[in-house]
Amino acid sequence: EAQLVESGGGLVQAGGSLTLSCAASGFTFGDYVIGWFRQAPGKEREGVSCISSGDGVKWYADSVKGRFTISSDNAKNTVYLQMSSLKPEDTAVYFCAAGIDPIVDAAYEYHYWGQGTQVTVSS
Predict the structure, then answer these.
(1) DSSP 3-state assignment of 65?
(2) Is 112:33 a contact under the CB 8 Å cutoff?
(3) Of 20, 42, 55, 88, which has the fewest CB atoms closer than 10 Å, so is most exposed?
(4) 37-58 as b/e, with b when 16 or more CB fall inside 10 Å?
């Protein structure tokens, strides 16, 4: 059974940093793109970043470029999202998802989803 488990969320002050982890199991990790999405209250789910586990190609939303870094440890089937210079508008539930050759920011193209982890940035 495919499973994605996020961890690392929490409360941080504006300007601070957090690192989220997404541990994958139950599918061939290297065949998938692993993406991070976020959803704030009353807003649609939006793509934040993704990485191709096979070749390491990365994508970032404009809103996080230069502040967030995605990386993958294929030996551990885990993807990380390092978030720095956090802003209150980064507050959301962050989800990781896995898809095969998806449109990077199209949630509907990802097959597997984690349960989400809350990130709250105070001003």
Answers:
(1) coil
(2) no
(3) 42
(4) bbeeeeeebebbbbbbbeeeee
Whether the Cβ atoms of residue 112 and residue 6 lie closer than 8 Å to each other: no
User: Residue 44 and residue 1: Cα distance in Å, rounded?
Assistant: 28
pLDDT digits (tens, 9 = 90+) for 29-46: 999 999 999 999 999 999
How many residues can be counted in the chain? 123
pLDDT at 77 over 90: yes
DSSP 39-68: E-TTS--EEEEEEETTT--EEE-TTTTTTE
What is the pairing mode between strands 117-122 and 10-13? parallel
92: tokens are 């959301």
CA atoms of 30 and 96, how far apart (whole Å):
15
Backbone angles phi, psi at 122, to 5 degrees: -90, 150
The whole-number pLDDT of residue 54 equals 86
> Using an 8 Å Cβ cutoff, are 51 and 71 in contact?
yes
